Amino acid sequence: MGTSGAVIRELDCKTLREQAQTTPPFPHIIVDDFLDHDFAREVVESWPSYSEAAKIGREFRSINERNKVQVTDSAQFPPALRRLNDALASPAFTQAMTSIFGIPELLPDAELVGGGLHQTGPRGRLDVHVDFNYLEARRLHRRLNILIYFNEGWLTDWGGQLELWNRDVSKCVRSVDPIFNRCVIFETSEISYHGVTSVTCPEGMVRRSFAGYYYTTAAPASWTGQSHSTVFKARPDESVKSGLMAVKHVSGIMKGKLKTAIRKP
Q1: What range(s) does the Prolyl 4-hydroxylase alpha subunit Fe(2+) 2OG dioxygenase domain occupy (predicted)?
Q2: Which of 104, 120, 207, 214 could form a disulfide with 124 if both were Cys (CB 3.0 to 4.6 A apart)?
Q3: Residue 179: which of 206, 152, 160 has the closest Cα?
């Protein structure tokens, strides 16, 4: 499969389908040299600095996600990133995703909720989690995540690995270095636990990625009728954080109940 403008290189859907169906811990694929090399370099050269991105995006400094900035407004993207976003939303690419993952009628998210341009600085991280499963305002079920990395010369010692965990978050099954022009696509579900290890790159450097998501109007077979926001879990060696997460979770539940009570006549 190719896309207009030779942005995305041709995909071997048959081989990738086999990879998605057989690779634990949940359906996913890893594609190196995902984009045309010259185009990928164009994206890197146009990438805004951390401080520039922070002015037009959102910074994260929470217990679960920190030293990270995200830009979701595609109107703020440089031209190369707009071309990338358009290619990922193209009918040709979404049809390829349907072929690989067996999910019909996939829809890209023009609003890039939770997606877009991401960059994480030194000491940044993203804890293990499953993503929100439903966009209630648009009645869309979240089905696939796509991540593309733009980190030239990235060393394993610098951390920032994408980790894929088993269903009870007792074991990291796969660790993926965020190297230049690597793409990871995985099916989102109630067991697709993933996270990013602490970034330890030198000061002045950042971990760069672009994220996109795909939805369906039809509910997946596993749908229980219950929507949820992002659900974080502590790693096995994070006992202190586990306690803090539990307090945060209970606080969130109480706030939700209070809002419901206030809305009642």
Answers
A1: 117-215
A2: 120
A3: 152
Half-sphere exposure for 94 (CA within 13 Å, toward CB): 17
- Report the distance separating Cα 220 and Cα 212, nearest Å: 19
Give a yes or no: residue 256 inside a domain: yes
Do 121 and 196 reside in the same domain of the chain?
yes
Question: Can you say how many angstroms the Cα of residue 34 is from the centroid of all Cα atoms in its chain?
Answer: 16
Distances 154 to 37, 64, 180, 193 between C-alpha atoms, Å = 17, 23, 8, 24
Residues 161 and 176 sit within 8 Å (Cβ to Cβ): yes
4 inside domain: no
- Interatomic CA distance for residues 107 and 84, integer angstroms: 16
Check whether residue 206 and residue 259 sit in a common domain: no
pTM higher than 0.85: yes
What CA–CA distance (Å, rounded) separates 71 from 210?
10
Token code pair at residue 174 = 């796969």
Question: Whole-angstrom Cα distance, residue 206 to residue 214?
Answer: 26
Residue given tokens 């019909």 in the structure block: 104
Helix (H, G, I), strand (E, B) or coil at 143: strand
* Distance (Å, whole) CA 50 – CA 27: 32
Residues 54-77: pLDDT tens digits?
A: 999 999 988 899 899 999 999 999
Domain of 30? 13-233
CATH number where 186 lies: 2.60.120.620
Indicate the DSSP class of residue 37: H
pLDDT value of position 4 = 46
- CA-wise closest residue to 212 among 115, 113, 141, 131: 115
Q: At what angle do helices 37-46 and 79-88 cross, to 10 degrees?
A: 130
Count of structural domains, the chain:
2
Residue of 167, 198, 19, 183 lying closest to 101 (CA atoms): 19
